[in-house]
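Morning!

This is the sequence you dropped in the shared folder:
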Amino acid sequence: MIILALESSAVAASAAICKDGQIISEAFLNIGLTHSQTLLPLAQNALSAANLNISDVDIFAVSYGPGSFTGIRIGVAAAKGMALANNKPCYGISTLEAMAWTASDTDALICPVMDARCMQVYTALFENKGERTERITEDDAIKIDELSGILREQNRPILLLGDGAEKYYKPLRDNGLNVTLASASIRQQHANGTALAAWTRYKNGIAPIDSEKLVPCYLRLSQAERERQNKEKGE
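The structure's back. Tokens below.
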């Protein structure tokens, strides 16, 4: 079983190949270019490094949100396009869950934190159970003060990762929480986590979906939509 996974929900972009539960190739870039320029070449690089062709892929997977609205749309569109062209199914994976899979060797509570601006974060809680990474809370967009309160209730060491981890590490630590910043090698979003989450779904008998059913999961309205709603309320 070969899975090609894509990640473009934040600044970094990557593609990874998972074969029967093992990551055999990954291509990663964090150089500021737009994902529309880098994502498909990264996918081709990951395939070439693994000596595979796109026709060898059985399932396509993508981190479908939360995160950058533009980045998510690019990733979902790329996965849908490749899957449709090759008549293969897809998995849409939570960006937060994918990040948790990259920290599968920690005993701490795993807390992905993505900067959602306006002092909000996209976040959820996960923990490792043997070889499994299990979800504790659902994905949400919340204020950093609310996250602080949720973490305080856990009363255990906490590993922060994600593109908002470094920004909010010190405020959370200064608030008395037992937080650790994940190493730079896993702090950013990586497609290998997306691939491992997709493999686990397949192994557990959760069927992938047809490409036309794959849609982004933004968690909240875009700024333009929020401004339009506020304008309509004012009128």
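Headline: The chain has two domains: 2-95+189-229, 104-187.

More detail when I'm at my desk.
O.
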